[in-house]
Amino acid sequence: MFAVALMILRYSFLLMLFIFIFRLVKWMISDLQDSPGHYPAEDPAGLLPEENMSGQSSDVKLIVIESSLEELEPGDTFIIGPELVIGRAGGSSIVINDSFASTRHSRVYIKQGQYWLEDLKSTNGTFLNEVIVDRPIVLADGDRIRIGKVTFQFVRWGHEVGSSN
Amino acid sequence: MNPGTFELNNLNLLRPRGRDRGRKIEFKLLVLAGGYALAGALVLYLSEPVSGLNALAAAVVTTAAFFIVHIFWNKNRYRGDLFLLPVTAALSSTGLIFLFRLNPAYGMRQFAWILIGLAVLVLVTRLLANFRFLSEYKYIYAMAGIVALILPIFFGKEQGGAKSWLDFGIFQMQPSEFVKILVVLFLASFLVENREILIKGTRSMGWLSVPGPSEWAPLAAMWAISLLILVFQRDLGTALIYFSTFLAMVYIATSRAFYALFGMGLFVAGAVACFFLFDHVRARVEIWLNPWPYIDTTGYQVAQSLFAIGSGGVLGTGLGQGYPNFIPAVHTDLIFSAICEEMGLLGGVGILLLFIIFIFRGIKIALNTKDDFDALVASGATALLGLQAFIIIAGVTKLLPLTGVTLPYISYGGSSLVANFILLGLLLNISNEAESRL
Fold first, then answer.
1. Out of A1-10, A102-111, B8-17, which region has the weakest mean confidence (pLDDT)?
2. Contact (CB<8Å) A25/B370
3. Which residue intervals of B128-212 are DSSP H helices?
4. Which of B17, B165, B345, B353 is the most exposed place for a label (fewest CB within 10 A)?
5. Which residues of chain B have pLDDT under 50?
6. Do A161 and B4 touch (CB under 8 A)?
């Protein structure tokens, strides 16, 4: 009787290994599926008073580094407030008066203390570091935003001191 | 206080928690890994109540220690990868159970080393959480590495044909295990700086553009020196790991197949030269091609390993039911054969799956980070551990000539265990950094 119980226990040792691996793989797959990656989910605990950020916003800007248009020259700087819209429409924060830009092309906004770039369903797309933006994405210091032939650099002073220089 | 620091502190406070599910998955997986370890220890206890009691106690304390690390990270809101610690727990528990089964004295020492390794892991994740400054000291790594490899040649002690041990009286140390970490850090910091030039090249040789000597010479010199030293120590397995990690990291940094192919060509040339120059290398290759004529002498180890794996069958003989002690060095390099004998093909496959999952997480961490240095350290550490596991498992199953290296986290050996826990800590810090940036 004891020998049989021991036998069962011996094989349950092996079984436990596979149960562990099975759960591991299962949770890893679900982690891949709902992994927000660079797109973190809403989190009430992380909601921040936006006023706190506006104090720093003067240090956050878009700088034109490449442009085919006369009215936008490399070096032109745009301060990002709580929200900044780029587009062909006259009311946009940055006006790109050319056919490749849509009326409201894309926008940069503050959420949870981060700056986000969103493409407003433009015809020709917005590119972040040459990757098309298909959902809102967090901007990091030094990121390049390209719309048609105009490229901006996102600058956030004091953010990640190590990597920006 | 200058405005810069204020800004940074402020940002830390305001940083969103993002995906704040805590470390629940890690907890659940640790429960399962703990159950696995306890099942094994219980078998040992029931079949041999006297020596098994220690095994049971060690398994309970080790499991508790892994939980303490988990609780500590949870409290500190550490955000490193959730899957690596449970995988490591399963691997090192397997090692612990098998060492108690093979020789309880080794089991007790391994138990102490696992606890030390976990303490070092906690220290690494605590003190080196901002590890970027490590990229500043590349020539210090090179010098320290060379010194650490030279010491055993003069003061070392020979064990199993390799002279790579330093004897400190109460314990022995194998510096080449720690040099692994220095190799990864040196290569990562050097490649980050010279990546562009290595990719583009500055001069052309026919159809090929190659970088100037100031870029490749430090690399080549490092490699010639460390390989020569290892040849003098007769530690071929470690030399093989260094060289393949080196190739992997250069390829990852430059994505130029030329370097990988050129390196492999150099390796083949070196291997052929070693075959003709050194008797011990020739013996290894001959055993690999056909161990049976040497079964009573040099081929004994490989032959016993194959017998053990074969007698295990699919389900294994059951823990404690086989005869793995016939295999020389079964507690260190050949522990995989003992696992295959007593847990069968399924147990061996399980261990391989754990290593594959470890490598998968490591590559994922490397892909998730935005910083080149981070990505290179993560992929280098992953390549190193993966290649080490591959080289020794291939060795004991006679897919490659058997070279003496440890199976990461499982084999007996304090230096190896602590060094691998440091690598684990670096990987976790890199994923922590990537997650916190969100």
1. B8-17
2. no
3. 138-155, 175-200
4. B345
5. 1-20
6. yes
Strands A94-95 and A127-128: unpaired
pLDDT beyond 60 at A160: no
Q: Which residues of A touch B357 (CB under 8 A)?
A: 21, 24-25, 28
Q: What ipTM was estimated for this complex? A: 0.86
Cα–Cα distance list, A25 to A31, A32, B23 (Å): 10, 10, 16
pLDDT digits 0-9 by tens, B79-138: 889 999 999 999 999 999 999 999 999 999 999 999 999 999 999 999 988 888 888 888
B367 and A CB contact within 8 Å: no
pLDDT, chain A, mean: 76
Q: What percent of chain A has pLDDT over 90?
A: 11
Per-residue pLDDT, A63: 86
- CB nearest A16 (choices: B25, B39, B83): B39
Q: Kindly tell me the sign of the dihedral angle through the C-alpha atoms of B291, B295, B301, B305.
A: positive
Count the neighbouring beta carbons within 10 Å of the beta carbon of residue B207.
5
- The answer to whether B192 faces chain A, any CB pair under 8 Å, is no
Given A6, A16, A28, which is nearest B35 (Cβ)? A16
Place of tokens 């006369």: A70
Decide: A116 and A136 in contact? Cβ < 8 Å.
Answer: yes
Where b means 16+ CB within 10 Å and e means fewer, B51-72 reads bbebbbebbeebbebbbebbee
Question: Does the CB of B356 have a partner CB in chain A at under 8 Å?
Answer: no
Residue at B23: amino acid letter: R
C-alpha dist (Å) from residue B201 to B205, B213, B215, B251: 10, 10, 9, 14
